[in-house]
Amino acid sequence: IFRTRRLDNDQDLKKGSDWMENDERMDVQITEVSQLDTFSQHTANYHQAAMADNTRAAYRSDVNDFLKQGGVLPASIEQVISYMERVATHLNPRSLKRRLVSIGQWHTLNRVFNPVDDPMVTKTLRGIERIHGTPKVKARALRLKDLDRILEYLDANPSLINTRNRALILLGFFGAFRRSELVGLTWEHVHFESEGMLITLPRSKTDPTGKGQQCLLPVGDDRRCPVRHLIVWREASGTQQGTIFRRISKSKKIGEQGISTVYFNLLFKDLVKKAKILHPEEYSSHSLRRGFATEAYKRGQDPLAIQAGGRWRSIRTVYEYIDASQNFKEAAVNALYDFNEMN
Question: What CA–CA distance (Å, rounded) separates 149 from 59?
Fold first, then answer.
């Protein structure tokens, strides 16, 4: 059964941070695969593990929206098209496409007719994309100069939580971690050496079956070094096992539970604002990963090395992560500006 999950709160942001806690909306309870009743509990567990928690949460949210808009399950072709018409003017076509995938997954997993596969639904979606399609908005890459501004803010406001935040931000940037990877790190994943540290990711978005991926981080300069500041956080937190980045209460008590991906994203946005970085609304925790790719490329790193460092599946994805402003020097038009070569 898809169940609700409330967001966590680290209780350390300003009082206005109640935008991240106590979401009391009740989700509609949806049976994911009713036929599992006929199989063993082991089979049910395997089915549960076949899908990432984040993916399941996204499916649940999308299907709930369909139901709240008046849809029913199982759905007919007409009901799906009616839903598409209702949300077409205010929902990005890419988001609508994902919701249709979620609705289709519900029908597929429950072994009933899937209306999303009907040609009329496909054609309606294509028309919505042509009429209402907009460019994809990417999080702005965090540049090194802006990373330094965040570090300056943390320096000016020393505290236990900012000791944690410094290690969190530096590791996120130089390790090019996805936020789910970062908040899921445990001390058992980290192996310190005299020259740096080796972090083993047992699972990730591009490695869901657990083959394992590694992130190698050498020791760097004192101010920006993720290795040094992770050690500082370990000593300050007094933890040697379990989750690395944990919640901290207002009384400065370090909890057992780690921060959530939602909290990390909101924390990062808050730090960007406090560091007075321009256009703060354009940043998200994804800016750390984009910043790694952009700055490495700017400094002449081979894209294949960047791909390995960020654990991307393809080189094409690497180029998508590099901020467009870094491509000015490679623009073909530069050759036309050399007027001395003109006849």
Answer: 38
